[in-house]
Amino acid sequence: MILETINSPKDLKALSEDQLPALSAEIRQKLLETVSKNGGHLASNLCVVELTVALHRVFDSPNDSIIFDVGHQSYVHKLLTGRYNEFSGLRKFGGISGFPKRSESEHDPFGAGHSSTSISAAAGIAAANLLCGSKAYTVAVVGDGAFTGGMIYEALNNCADKDRLIIVLNDNDMSISPNVGGMSRYFSKVRSSAKYFRFKNGTKRFFASIPLIGNGLIKCARAVKNSFKKIVLSQNFFEQFGLSYYGPLNGNDEKHLERVLNEAKDDGKCSVVHICTTKGKGYEPAEKRPDIFHGVSGFDIESGVVKNGSAESFSERFGKTVCDRAEKNEKIIAITAAMPDGTGLTEFSERFPERFFDVGIAEEHAVTFACGLAAKGYIPVFAVYSTFMQRAFDQFLHDAALQGLHVIITLDRAGLVGADGATHHGIFDAAYISEIPNVDFYAPADFAEFEKCFDKALEASGPVVIRYAKSGESNEKPNHALDGLKYSDFGASPKAAIISYGRLADNAFEAARILNGRGIESRVIRLNSLSPLPSQSVFDLVKETDIILFAEEGIKNGGIAQRFFADAAEAGILNEKHCIIKAIDSEFPTHGSNEQLFEALGLSAEAIAETVFQAARVKNHEA
Q1: Is residue 578 within 8 Å of residue 618, measured between CB atoms?
Q2: In whole angstroms, what is the distance from residue 406 CA to residue 415 CA?
Q3: CA–CA separation, 339 vs 432, rounded Å?
Q4: How far is CA 179 from the centre of its chain?
Q5: Taking a C-beta distance cutoff of 8 angstroms, is the pair 294, 70 a contact?
Q6: b or e along 147-184 (b: 16 or more beta carbons within 10 Å of the residue's beta carbon)?
Q7: What b/e sequence results for 265-275 when a residue is b if at least 16 CB atoms lie within 10 Å of its CB, and e otherwise?
Q8: Digit-coded pLDDT (tens) for 13-51
Q9: In the prediction, which pLDDT does 230 show?
Q10: Which CATH fold would you assign to the domain 483-622?
C-alpha cells in the first residue's frame, strides 16, 4: 500500500510518476470504504484525486496555502496531509471533520463549509504574503457551481494585482444538482474550445524546445496572437479581469496537471487553471448519478445502493405540500439556490417548470428575487437550508420584512445536522429571524402542524418563515392545544414546566416521563409559533409551577428562551420561580450523531430531567 506510507506532502513528492496511478486507485478505494460506512461527500472527492495529488507535488503545503471552496472536496487533501490514520473517524463524534478546519491541521489554512468564499480568502492570504515579504503561493480550488455565487466576482475584481495566486476552476458541469445560469453556459462554450487550447499549449512547448531562440519565438508568437485576438476575437472571461488563463485541461490527467500548474507557478501572477473533471470518477454508480452520491448517509459498495431512512422527512412532506397547493393556486412560485433535491422541490420543478426557479448558489439574490415576485402579486416560496439562509439576513430584513412583502421562507435542516458539523448546524435562525419585526415564524414538529402553518403562510400578507429539522415528524401527540402551542400534563398537579419547540420537544416529553418516574409531576409545552410568541398562553400554563425550564436547539444568546423569560419578567409572573435555559451556550457544536450532540450539549432527555430534578431538590430544601 503506497497510501499508508504518505505522512506528509514531502512523502508524495518522493514518489515516481509510475507510482501515481496506483496511488490514485488506492485513494479512491479508501474513499469508497470510508464514505460507504460513515456517510459524506463522495462524488466530489472522487473527481479531484489526480488534481489533489498534483497540487501537493507542485506546491509546498503548509508554506504554500491550498484552499478548497465549500470544503466537501477536501477528503483527498486530508489523506495526503498526515490524516490517513484518523480517516476512519471522518465525520464521527471526536473524529476529523468532513470539511477543512484550521484547528485540525496546519495544512488547512482556511475553513470552509459554504460556497464561493475561497478566492476572497486566497486573495487575502496572497496580500498578506506580499506585505510580509513571503514568496509563498496561494491556491484556491473552486468548483464551477461556486461561480453562481456573487462573492466569486467581487473577489475576481480584486485579484489582478495579486502575485503568486492561482485559481483552479474544477469544472464538472455539476455543483449538487446540474448547474444553471449564464456562467454554466459560458463554461460549456469554453469546454467546446478545448482543441484550440491544446493546439496553443502544444505550439508553445514546440517553440520552447528550440535551443537559444525558443523563448524569443514564444514571446513573438504571443504578441502576434494577442494583437490578432484584440481585433477579431473577444477575450476570455478571466482575461478580461487581467488574469492569465490556462485550459481547459483534463483534470484527471495528473501528469499534464503538474506541467500546467508549474507553468502557472512560474508565471508568478494571478492565474486561472481551468480543468474539466468527471464527478464520481472511478466509481460507476457515482459517475451515473453524481447528484445522489454528492452527499450520502452510507451505501453498499458492490451494488451502489444508497442507504436511506424509511421514514418520510420534512423535506419530502414540504415537497408534496407545495405541489398540492400549487395545483390549486397558480400564484405559488418555488425557488431554490441550487438545492432542488435536498429541499424537496424536484417534483415541483417537473410538474410546474414555468413556476420553478433555480437561481444557483446565490441565497442573497434568491430572497430579493422572491421579493420582486411578491411585489407583483405572486407568492414565492424559497426553500433553503437554515445554515445557508444566514447569508441572506440583510436581504430578508431590508427587502422582505421592511417592505412587508409576502415572501415565504422554508428553513430546512434547522437545528443540529449531525455529521456535517459546525458549518452546517442551523442553530442561529431562531435568534435572528425572531428579532425582525412583522414576520410570522413557525416551528412545526409534525406534518399536520406543518401543513396548517404552510396554509397560514399562504394566507398571510407579509413575510413568513417556517423552520423544520432534517428528520421526520415527531411521534409525540400532546393532549391539549391552544393557538400557537400544544401541551401535555404528566401528573395531576404539575410543579415543573418544560417548554420547547420543534424536534427537541421530543426530548422534553421523554424528560417528563423520567421525572414522573422519580416523583416529580410536570407539564410539557410545545410551541409551534415563535413569532409572535404566544407568551400570555404560556404564562397561564406556568403560573402554578415552581420551576420553568426552556430547552432550545439553538443558541442561547438572543434565542427564543431569552425572549420568553424577558416577556415573563416584564409581565411580573416569575415571582419566586426557578427559571432555567438549556440551549447552546459555548463553542460552535462539533460533528457527530445528533444523539451524541444532544448529550454533549446537555440537551438529551436525561440531561433535561436531571436539571429539573436538581432544581426541585433545591426548591424543596428552600421550602
Answers
A1: yes
A2: 25
A3: 23
A4: 17
A5: no
A6: bbbebbeebbeebeebebbbbbbbbbbbbbbebbeebb
A7: beeebbbbbbb
A8: 999 999 999 999 999 999 999 999 999 999 999 999 999
A9: 45
A10: Rossmann fold (3.40.50)
> What one-character-per-residue DSSP string does 26-78 give?
HHHHHHHHHHHHH-B--HHHHTTHHHHHHHHHHS-TTTSEEEESSSTT-HHHH
Catalytic (active site) residue 37: no
Tens of pLDDT, residue by residue over 292-320, are 898 888 999 999 999 876 689 999 999 99
Q: What is the per-residue burial (b if ≥16 Cβ within 10 Å, else e) of 452-466? A: ebbeebbeeebbbbb
- Preceding amide of 62 cis, omega within 30: yes
Q: Which residues contact 500 (CB under 8 A, 6 or more apart)?
A: 507, 508, 524, 525, 526, 527, 550, 551, 552
d(CA 280, CA 290): 6
From 355, 391, 467, 526, active-site residue: 391
Find out whether the peptide bond into 532 is cis, omega within 30 degrees of 0: yes
Query: Which sequence spans correspond to the domains of the chain?
Result: 3-288, 314-467, 483-622
For 35, what's the count of Cα atoms within 13 Å in the CB-facing half-sphere?
30
Amino acid 563: pLDDT: 97
Asked if 3-288 and 483-622 have one fold, the answer is yes
Catalytic residue among 363, 364, 449, 553: 363
414 to each of 108, 343, 470, how far by Cα in Å? 27, 12, 7
Q: Are 150 and 366 in contact (CB under 8 A)?
A: no
Alpha carbon 505 to chain centroid, angstroms: 25
Please tell me the total number of residues recorded for the chain in this structure. 623
Whether 391 sits among the annotated catalytic residues: the reply is yes
Within 10 A of 208 (CB to CB), how many other CB atoms are there? 11
Cα 128 to Cα 131: distance, rounded to the nearest angstrom? 5
Handedness of CA 330, 332, 337, 339 (dihedral sign): negative
Specify the CATH number of the domain 314-467: 3.40.50.970
Class of domain 3-288: alpha beta
Mean pLDDT (the chain, rounded): 91
* SS3 category, 486: strand
Going by DSSP bridges, is the β-strand pair 408-412/356-358 parallel, antiparallel, or unpaired?
unpaired
DSSP three-state, residue 558: coil
363 is catalytic: yes
- Helix (DSSP H) and strand (DSSP E) numbers for the chain: 24, 18
Question: Which three cell numbers mark 274?
Answer: 481551468
What gap in Å lies between CA 310 and CA 318, rounded to an integer? 17
What band does 231 get if pLDDT is binned at 50, 70 and 90?
very low
Strands 485-490 and 480-482, sheet pairing: antiparallel
CA 321, 323, 324 angle in degrees (round to 5)?
65
C-alpha 552/C-alpha 508 separation (Å) is 10
Tracing cell 402554578 back to the chain, one arrives at: 544
Q: Provide the pLDDT confidence category of residue 232 given band limits of 50, 70 and 90.
A: very low
Q: How far apart, in Å, are the Cα atoms of 165 and each of 168, 275, 280, 359?
A: 10, 16, 28, 29
Cell numbers found for residue 352: 410546474
- How many angstroms separate the first and last alpha carbons of the chain? 69
Q: Are strands 485-490 and 522-527 parallel, antiparallel or unpaired?
A: antiparallel
Q: Which grid coordinates are listed for 429?
A: 435562525
